[in-house]
Amino acid sequence: KQEVTQIPAALSVPEGENLVLNCSFTDSAIYNLQWFRQDPGKGLTSLLLIQSSQREQTSGRLNASLDKSSGRSTLYIAASQPGDSATYLCAVEGGANNLFFGTGTRLTVIP
Amino acid sequence: NAGVMQNPRHLVRRRGQEARLRCSPMKGHSHVYWYRQLPEEGLKFMVYLQKENIIDESGMPKERFSAEFPKEGPSILRIQQVVRGDSAAYFCASSPNPTGNTEAFFGQGTRLTVV
Fold first, then answer.
1. Contact A23/A50 with Cβ under 8 angstroms?
2. A62, A106, B49, B70: which has the fewest C-beta neighbours closer than 10 Å?
3. pLDDT in tens, A77-86
């Protein structure tokens, strides 16, 4: 059974810092990996989708990498801003038409 | 193009009552997924439906829970005889194709509180 782990569970950084969030998964047979953002009491916003054949995706200040063989993904956030404060979720799809989620990293960017 | 719409956003039910959660997928999306997020836990898959068909309900509790996606109208997640342990946020997602190749778009969720 696929298990997704995110480290750290919480992270506090000063504004302007670059940071890396980590995601690992136990079964490397995945179709894709997706990073989401969840604000308190709100829904999920998709940030980046990486297909299994891809190594990375970029959107603005965000860059996500995927190393399928080692079961790892990272989300890099450049020049962090207070508005980036949220919980970041990693999810993988193993072809069963459903996503396996990690428990998230709660990010706080301090002005 | 409105996103995935869920209602109600908040729902309070007494133990033993029924809860009905509705999800309208994005226009043109015929694939709907329900997830549950228990307090301090990750989202867990419950059920995957296409129009009028349940494709995968492997994540749904065997009793009291049911889901449908009729030809017309929203997808409904129904919880009968709710218990305190059903208190959670329930999220619906939709996609135009099976999510193997496309991303899923999530709604704002329905937060169910059982008192």
1. no
2. B70
3. 999 999 999 9
